[in-house]
Write a structure and sequence with these properties.
- The complex is a heterodimer of chains A (541) and B (279).
- By secondary structure, chain A is α+β, with helices and mostly antiparallel strands.
- Helices cover 27% and strands 31% of the residues of chain A.
- In chain A, strands 5, 7, 9, 10 and 11 form a 5-stranded antiparallel β-sheet that branches. In chain A, strands 17, 19, 20, 21 and 22 form a 5-stranded antiparallel β-sheet that branches.
- In chain A, a hairpin with a 2-residue loop joins strand 21 and strand 22.
- In chain A, helix 6 packs antiparallel against helix 7 and helix 7 packs across helix 8.
- Chain A is elongated and about 150 Å long.
- Chain B folds into 3 domains: 102 residues, Tetratricopeptide repeat domain (Serine Threonine Protein Phosphatase 5, Tetratricopeptide repeat, Alpha Horseshoe); 68 residues; 66 residues, SH3 type barrels (Roll), CATH 2.30.30.40.
- Chain B has a 5-stranded antiparallel β-sheet. A two-stranded antiparallel sheet of chain B has the order 2-3.
- In chain B, a hairpin with a 2-residue loop joins strand 5 and strand 6.
- The longest helix of chain B is centred in the C-terminal third of the chain and has 34 residues.
- Chain B is elongated, with a radius of gyration of 23 Å.
- The chains are: A alpha+beta (541), B alpha+beta (279).
- At the A-B interface, strand 12, helix 2 and helix 3 of A face helix 2, helix 3, helix 4, helix 6 and helix 8 of B.
Chain lengths: 541, 279
């Protein structure tokens, strides 16, 4: 039952199940003054095509945002709104330039940087260029990081013609909410999505592909400053508040009850708690609380009432002192107090108090534990040996050092063996002899060169075949070499070389003979050395 | 090794912990001292809420002092036993005592008070038929926290030394018997050294990446990363963490903290926890 004229938004209803929030759509109900329904309906372009409650009234099947109004019945002329209608749109509809050439949703917040508990005003406007529109499939933005209050008493406003630059647009304020951030951080308000539907003044369908969404909004929320923060301040107590109190009666008997009422009023998110005076011998019972929230010039204001029962157990005059509620005033940028003086109560001796029950173990803890009178020093941060630079490398250094030493020693031994073998190798010895032969030939010592060639050849033969050719007479040498595995041509080369060496050594032949011989026999000696190496490998395998 | 019983190990551990050099940090500044005195007076006058307001103001200002934390715990404990007790008072007392111990590890009075408050919380939970504060930690974390980190560091260093010695004997000794003894010593100490090295590495990782938090509400609801409450499952017999429970925090977002409680890894609302300072 409505007792006021206007448009009311009902919902959206939402339910949280298993941590998921599911929300329905909001519904707009328009209440008009009694007796004006006919006129109102003629003006209103958003109606049911067929009204079952007024089937023969002012039904105009051609007048809705989806259909062009009939000449003389519609709100605007076919060519759009007249100058009078375009002269007075609310300033809050003003926008520098459209975000879309056809239709768009525009979300705004003010201010963009706040402290925890400070009001942020959030609003969303819909703009359509082709003509009047209506919205469907509205998806509400989420305010999970905020306490949220609706600031629009009448629900969504009407679409009004206005200008953006030189163009005529239709604008509608969809939502206006007061948001109170619950924690610090970079908080985000999600996008609102809605689908535009309607026709242009010429009667053509407009807003094709009319789904639009508002922009995401970010708010920086910080804690109020630490500097100057009073004790007892609770994060979120932000606004401008006044506190008043009443204490009745002021003359009581011990253990009797006294009614103490507090009323906190002001603008902002009303604090949930006040710190009561604590004295020995007084006992505050659980309060009854009530709260009234109202909108006041775009701000949330209200009143919260605490009704306490106070019991005074000790006779005498009790000064209850002052209740102070610290809060942060964002407009002045400083902390302030809402205070209420409670005054004194005269307590006369009353009936004997009931003896308290024997303290339990935990009560004895509360009674026995006493605060420290003086703040002492802080122990230095604990030092950890593992934080020593290269700690893990140092752990491995010893064992790996020994293992490395063992490895180096083993490698050294192998190297020594290798070099020893290499030093004694046939190839090295024969090549040395051949080099000696060349040097001697260069110094015209043919006999010495012949001896060196003979030594190199016999060494290579022995290494390759195992045959000690030096002890075999020359006539039998050919057969022995063939028997030892040399080919006949190699055997003949060997014998002829040895003969030539003997000739040079004993008869003083020309050194040029040896020069030719040396070139011829060198490749043969190298071949023998290779065979010797292969044989050695085969034996090793 | 016959004499290396638990007492010896604990003595060694305490030696390792106490062996670190101590240099006391500065006391409170004059403003903080005044607030501290006001709070102490309020506690003694039976006004714990006023004391809490003063001491929380010091915490908001970033004052870290074990005696401030201890007195805050005292104020919460005293308020918890009055008609004006607030939900979570004992959890906040646990958090304040944990903070006092973190700032001064040798504070025996704080240790004793912490044990009594935790016993009280356990009793309350038993009366209500709720789960215990005690949970079984994962084997890895239990091993890492079996002894102080420096104990494991010392063990690793000793193992490294014995391993080196054993290897040297095995390498250089002439007698086969000595070489065998050397090899055996190197193998045993090497294995223990690897274990201690792994534990110390894990301990360093945990110390650098994990922060300790204490639940300061009657029950902290377990959630997923998106903040959706988790149901009870066969693997997880509770969807809540009890008041006063100590949790490991591995990650923080604006509203939630990723925690490890026993073997349960989940997210909880940041406002349900008090994060302890890293020391």
């Amino acid at each position: 039952m409505s007792n006021a004229v206007g448009r009311f938004r009902i919902g959206p209803a939402s339910v949280i199940s298993a941590g998921h929030s599911v929300a329905d759509k909001a519904f707009i109900v328009e209440v008009v003054a009694a007796g004006t329904l006919q006129t109102q309906r003629n003006r209103n372009t958003r109606r049911m095509p067929f009204d079952p409650f007024d089937p023969f009234g002012d039904f105009d099947p051609f007048s809705s945002p989806m259909l062009p109004p009939m000449r003389g019945l519609g709100q605007f002329a076919p060519n759009g709104p007249d100058q009078q209608q375009l002269s007075a749109w609310p300033h809050e509809f003003d926008i520098a330039q459209p975000r879309d050439p056809v239709a768009f949703l525009d979300a705004r917040i003010t201010p963009k940087r706040v402290v925890i508990g400070q009001q942020v005003t959030f609003s969303i406007f819909a703009y359509g260029h082709p003509g009047l529109f209506e919205l469907s499939g509205v998806n509400e933005p989420s305010f999970s990081d905020f306490l949220s209050y609706d600031l629009m008493e009448d629900g969504a406003s009407r679409e009004l013609p206005m200008r953006i630059g030189e163009d005529v647009w239709y604008a509608q304020k969809l939502r206006e909410r007061a948001l109170f951030p619950l924690h610090a951080g970079h908080l985000q308000i999600g996008a609102m999505r809605a689908s535009f539907r309607g026709v242009d003044p010429a009667g053509q369908a407009a807003y094709k592909e009319g789904m639009r969404q508002s922009q995401l909004l970010n708010i920086v929320v910080v804690e109020p400053p630490i500097s100057g923060r009073p004790s007892g301040y609770r994060l979120g107590d932000v606004g401008q508040f006044r506190l008043s109190s009443s204490v009745e009666p002021r003359d009581v008997k011990a253990h009797d009850a006294v009614a103490v009422n507090f009323e906190l009023s002001g603008t902002g998110n009303l604090p949930q708690h006040i710190d009561l005076p604590e004295r020995s011998g007084i006992e505050w019972l659980e309060p009854n609380t009530s709260q009234t929230i109202e909108r006041k010039n775009g701000k949330i204001a209200g009143k919260r009432v605490w009704q306490y029962v106070l019991k005074l157990h000790d006779a005498g005059t009790v000064d209850l002192g002052t209740v102070r509620l610290p809060y942060y005033d964002p407009e002045r940028g400083q902390y302030a107090f809402a205070t209420a003086e409670l005054g004194q109560i005269v307590v006369r001796p009353g009936a004997a108090a009931v003896e308290p029950a024997i303290a339990s173990t935990d009560d004895s803890l509360a009674q026995s534990i006493m605060p420290r009178e003086q703040p002492g020093a802080i122990a230095p941060p604990r030092r950890y040996w593992a934080d020593t630079p290269h700690f893990f490398a140092l752990l491995l250094l010893g064992p790996l050092g020994v293992i490395a030493g063992m490895g180096i020693k083993s490698l050294g031994a192998r190297g020594l063996i290798f070099w020893s073998r290499r030093r004694d190798s046939v190839k090295r010895r024969t090549l040395e002899q051949l080099q000696v032969a060349r040097d001697l030939l260069a110094h015209e010592d043919a006999a010495g060169a012949a001896t060196a060639i003979e030594r190199a050849l016999l060494t290579a033969i022995e290494a390759a075949t195992g045959l000690k050719a030096r002890g075999i007479i020359r006539n039998e040498l050919n057969g022995s070499l063939i028997a030892a595995g040399l080919s006949p041509s190699e055997s003949e080369l060997t014998v002829s070389t040895l003969d030539a060496c003997d000739t040079v050594r004993f008869t003083g032949g020309a050194s040029s003979l040896l020069t030719e011989l040396l070139d011829k026999v060198e490749s043969f000696i190298q071949d023998l050395c290779r065979r010797a190496a292969r044989g050695e490998k085969a034996r090793a395998a | 090794m016959r004499h290396l019983d638990v007492k010896t190990i604990l003595f060694l551990a305490s030696f390792v912990v106490c062996a670190t050099p101590a240099h006391a940090e500065a006391l409170l500044d004059s403003d903080s001292k005044i607030i501290f005195n006001r709070a102490t007076t309020a506690i003694e006058a039976g006004a714990p809420s006023e004391a809490i307001a003063e001491l929380e103001l010091l915490a908001d200002r970033g004052v870290l002092n074990p005696d401030v934390s201890f007195n805050r715990a005292v104020a919460y404990i005293k308020r918890a036993k009055t008609s004006r007790a607030q939900p979570g008072d004992l959890g906040r007392a646990v958090a304040a005592l944990e903070e006092a111990i973190a700032l001064r590890p040798s504070d025996a009075q704080a240790e004793a008070a912490l044990q009594r408050v935790q016993s009280e919380l356990s009793r309350e939970r038993s009366r209500r038929g709720s789960q215990s504060l005690l949970v079984r930690p994962s084997i890895g974390r239990a091993l890492v926290r079996l002894f102080p980190e420096n104990f494991w560091a010392l063990s690793a260093m000793l193992a490294s030394g014995f391993c080196t010695l054993g290897l040297l004997v095995a390498w250089l000794a002439s007698s086969p018997r000595r070489r065998f003894v050397g090899k055996a010593a190197a193998s045993i100490s090497g294995a223990f050294g690897i274990l201690a090295g792994v534990v110390i590495f894990a301990a360093v990782q945990i110390r650098h990446t994990v922060t300790i938090g204490v639940v300061t509400v009657p029950e902290a609801r377990l959630r997923d990363a998106a903040g959706v409450p988790l149901p009870v499952t066969q693997a997880r017999d509770s969807a809540n963490i009890p008041e006063g429970a100590r949790v490991d925090i591995s990650r923080l977002s604006d509203r939630y903290a990723e925690i490890l409680w026993g073997e349960t890894k989940a997210w909880v609302q940041l406002s349900d926890l008090q994060v302890l300072p890293r020391r």
